[in-house]
Amino acid sequence: MNTSYEDIPGTIMFDGQMATLGYPLNKMCYSFNDAEARNAFVADEEAYCQLFGLSDAQKKAIKDRDVLELLRQGGSIYYLAKFAGILGLNVQDVGALQTGMSVDEFKAMLVKAGE
């Protein structure tokens, strides 16, 4: 099976290799379903990231609030949505980041696609 996705510009493919890379990150983000976990993260982000064994690159992306880099580090958008929520971002905000559009442009694209 060909695992090269370079022919899909702008796409960060989430496959088995990315799932393995992102497992600690996604496990941490899943924990944000619980309010206590969100509070613990906000209280001491570094310690919380360490608890889940995030890589240095993942910890840096968390610190930098770089959702796109988190995707490159194996983050699943479904789990990263939990982290984005802590930041006050919604799925349309993240979609705009992924496409390089403003949020208004992204929303307009979605409306047009639905016509």
Please bin the fraction of helical residues: 55-70%
Structural class: mainly alpha
CATH superfamily (homologous) name of the domain at 16-88 = Dioxygenase LigAB, LigA subunit
Contiguous helical run count? 8
Averaged pLDDT: 90
CATH class of the domain at 16-88: Mainly Alpha
What would you report as the Rg, rounded to the nearest angstrom?
A: 15 Å
- The fraction of residues assigned to DSSP E strands is under 5%
CATH topology descriptor of the domain at 16-88 = Protocatechuate 4,5-dioxygenase, Chain A
Q: Could you give a short account of the major beta sheet?
A: none
N- to C-terminal separation? 36 Å
**Number of E strands:** 0
CATH architecture of the domain at 16-88: Orthogonal Bundle
Low-confidence stretches: none
Enzyme class: oxidoreductase
GO molecular function: protocatechuate 4,5-dioxygenase activity
Protein name: Protocatechuate 4,5-dioxygenase alpha chain
EC number: 1.13.11.8
Write the layout of secondary structure elements.
Elements: H1 16-31, H2 35-43, H3 45-52, H4 56-64, H5 67-72, H6 77-86, H7 91-99, H8 103-113
Helix pairs in contact: 1-6, 2-3, 7-8
Domain Extradiol ring-cleavage dioxygenase LigAB LigA subunit: 25-110
Enzyme class: oxidoreductase
EC number: 1.13.11.8
